[in-house]
Amino acid sequence: MAGIRLPPEDIDISQARALLTADLISDDDRSIAADSWSIKSDYGSTLDDDQRHADASEALAAARFCAASDYSSDKEEPDAETITSMLGYQSYWDATYADELTNFREHGDAGEVWFGADVMEMVASWTKGLCVDISQRHLQNHHNDDDSESISQEDKDLAGWSVLDVGTGNGMLLHELAKQGFSDLTGIDYSEGAINLARSLANRDGFISIKLLVDDVLETKLEKKFELVMDKGTLDAIGLHQDGPIKRIMYWESMSRLVAPGGLLVITSCNNTKEELVQEVENFNQRKIGEVEEEEEEEGKGGLFWYLDHIRSYPTFMFGGSVGSRVATVAFCVR
Predict the structure, then answer these.
(1) Computed from CA positions of residues 268, 269, 270, 276, in that sequence, does the dihedral angle turn out positive or negative?
(2) Do 228 and 323 fall within a single domain?
(3) Which residues are bridge partners to 184 per DSSP?
(4) C-alpha pair distances (Å), 173 with each of 6, 23, 168, 179, 259
(5) For 20-24, 115-119, 122-126, 178-182, which range has the lowest pLDDT when averaged over its residues?
(6) Any coiled-coil ranges, and where (predicted)?
(7) What is the span of the domain harbouring residue 35?
(8) What is the pLDDT of residue 51?
(9) Does 197 lie in the same domain as 154?
(10) How many CA atoms lie within 13 A of 54 on its CB side?
(11) Measuring CA to CA, which residue among 208, 206, 114, 90 is closest to residue 168?
């Protein structure tokens, strides 16, 4: 899940707890991470269900509704940017994946699936549909161009899409994408324990061609650009660091370099609505345009994002007279 990095002096679990605001403290932060909106993993868990749902409800009330800027209240609400959590720190994820790797070796358990298996499968299937539609339009444009060269096989199927999953965690999303027909698959996570678990699961389940690397998405060493970049919960965790606003800017800078021109970025979030993600992209684009106006554009600086589509079939709920979804999946294209 994690794709973020601490400053050189890493913070331990006890120090991270001191960063929690009163509204976000729970008895079991791990259950919030694994099951933010009471969506239980189909791959099993050692957590108590009653505690899981209690923690999820607390997270929903503290992190989601208090952060909504469209609602007025007589009470003084905490600034969304000040809400921090252990989930924003590498030491938390290192400890979590050390436990999950031990659990896998002893019991064969794959660990938690962020947002649940149903959401993961929906994201993978929906993303496949987007990529197929784009490939078909690309083929049609070539057919309509009398001067075009012959179409390569890579343009005709999903095997031609290079895919990167940032903050891959146990790598289960990559497994699902492989089942959908993608074959050029890479996963990165800044937690070595996560990558060790992901490799063990990939080998066990026969996905030996998946490339898995220890890498921090905010300070990535990857030089390759990818046609498809997936983020399932990583931006959420980045926002829970005490320097979340700064790290989110770093995130978008990194994404603009990792996604190839014409490629897709698909973000699944439980802490951001579709509208909030679109607004964040617009803010990033405005900053980039301002930078280009002030200085000549340098090669490799990355492109701008534009909204393409979002999943409309998630269950919805009513709050404050507005209808929303507990999970949002939004696709952006880089130009």
Answers:
(1) negative
(2) yes
(3) 162
(4) 25, 31, 7, 10, 18
(5) 20-24
(6) 267-298
(7) 13-107
(8) 47
(9) yes
(10) 9
(11) 114
Alpha helices (runs of H) in the chain, residue ranges in sequence order:
13-18, 29-34, 49-59, 90-107, 117-143, 172-180, 192-205, 234-239, 244-258, 274-294
pLDDT band at 298 (very low <50, low <70, confident <90, very high): low
Sheet bearing 305-310, strands edge to edge: 211-214, 184-189, 162-166, 226-232, 259-269, 328-334, 305-310
Res 202 pLDDT > 50: yes
316-319 and 305-310 as β-strands: parallel, antiparallel, unpaired?
Answer: unpaired
Cα separation, 263 vs 333, in Å, equals 6
Name the amino acid, one letter, at 34: A
Exposed / middle / buried, residue 130 (Cβ in 10 Å: 0-12, 13-18, 19+):
middle
pLDDT at 64: 37
Same domain, 101 and 200: no
Q: Which of 107, 138, 168 is where one domain is finished?
A: 107
Do 24 and 86 have their domain in common? yes
8 part of a folded domain: no
Same domain, 151 and 87: no
Any idea how long the chain is? 335
Residue 220: pLDDT above 90?
Answer: yes
The span from the CA of 31 to the CA of 49, in Å, is 9
- In a 3-state reduction of DSSP, which class is residue 165? strand
Cα–chain-centroid distance for residue 116? 14
Query: Helices 274-294 and 244-258: crossing angle, nearest 10°?
Result: 70
Establish if 1 belongs to a structural domain. no
Is the alpha carbon torsion for 89, 94, 99, 104 positive or negative?
positive
